[in-house]
């Protein structure tokens, strides 16, 4: 990992990796993750349930004929990466992973070595045009065909509401009808837990990483899908989106407590 430019000691990608039981994390990431888990012990379960939603959504998109994916905020490769899931259903599926974290990108590139149908690029979603103009992305993604745009567990790292909305709008702009948008997002709407420590948990990201963490409510998450047709069951809690056999059961009887809202929409 030496030589990787990273001016903050912990990153959202590696904190998430730790929550998922991965090994691509450093002491600062583990300390930040443990501080959060001490306040909110359910967070590793949230990560697991989010990852399960990502898998179901990718399977759904592939079943709808989507063969190319742009995965923004893709994270460090772990179990059930998008190209692996998509290629189980459509062997020629193409995927571009996009992340702000250089380690997430380099680990993805290592995993994808020799795979002509997938790559990883480093970019900040707050500069959506740079993503769309990226030459490597354009080699893999054909904008004349429907695209699956994945923004899973990433928009909550964009603190500015206008930046987050603009990014979604701009990334959707070149996508042809039949393209799909997949989003999951941290939310505490209606949560029954004691949220006294929420500010302190958010302070961990503010203090230790370059990506502060913000929660949004159902109306805000729904607003990203304005002008799209929402796929049933609409904007719901993670375990509620088209549950499948083998899903984690942590929040099945109390979905609000999962801490994540999600939805899939189709470009008209
Ligand atoms: N999408 C994967 C998933 O749901 O399993 C990984 C989600 S992980 C919680 C969030 C990822 O978003 C991290 O890898 C982080 O580096 C990335 N990220 C945060 N802010 C970003 C930004 N402005 N642009 C691109 N990626 C960003």
UniProtKB/TrEMBL annotation:
<dbReference type="Pfam" id="PF04672">
    <property type="entry name" value="Methyltransf_19"/>
</dbReference>
<dbReference type="InterPro" id="IPR029063">
    <property type="entry name" value="SAM-dependent_MTases_sf"/>
</dbReference>
<protein>
    <recommendedName>
        <fullName>S-adenosyl methyltransferase</fullName>
    </recommendedName>
</protein>
<dbReference type="InterPro" id="IPR006764">
    <property type="entry name" value="SAM_dep_MeTrfase_SAV2177_type"/>
</dbReference>
């Amino acid at each position: 990992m030496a030589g990787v430019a990273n001016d903050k000691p912990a990153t959202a990608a590696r904190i998430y990796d730790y929550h998922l039981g991965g090994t691509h994390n450093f002491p600062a990431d583990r300390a930040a993750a443990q501080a959060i888990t001490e306040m909110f012990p359910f967070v590793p379960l949230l990560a697991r349930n989010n990852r399960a939603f990502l898998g179901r959504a990718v399977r759904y998109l592939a079943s709808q004929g989507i063969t190319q994916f742009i995965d923004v905020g893709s994270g460090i490769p772990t179990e059930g990466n998008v190209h692996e899931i998509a290629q189980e259903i459509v062997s020629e599926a193409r995927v571009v992973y996009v992340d702000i974290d250089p380690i997430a990108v380099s680990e993805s590139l290592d995993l994808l070595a020799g795979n002509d149908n997938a790559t990883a690029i480093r970019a900040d979603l707050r500069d959506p045009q740079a993503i769309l103009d990226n030459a490597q992305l354009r080699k893999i993604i054909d904008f004349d065909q429907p695209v699956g745009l994945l923004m899973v567990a990433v928009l909550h790292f964009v603190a500015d509401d206008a930046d987050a909305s603009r990014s979604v709008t701009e990334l959707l702009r070149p996508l042809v009808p039949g393209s799909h948008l997949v989003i999951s997002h941290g939310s505490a709407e209606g949560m029954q837990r004691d949220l006294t420590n929420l500010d302190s948990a958010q302070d961990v990201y503010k203090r230790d990483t370059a990506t502060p963490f913000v929660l949004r409510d159902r109306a805000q998450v729904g607003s990203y899908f304005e002008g799209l047709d929402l796929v049933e069951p609409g904007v719901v809690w993670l375990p509620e989106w088209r549950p499948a056999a083998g899903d984690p059961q942590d929040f099945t009887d109390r979905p609000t407590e999962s801490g994540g809202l999600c939805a899939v929409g189709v470009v008209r």
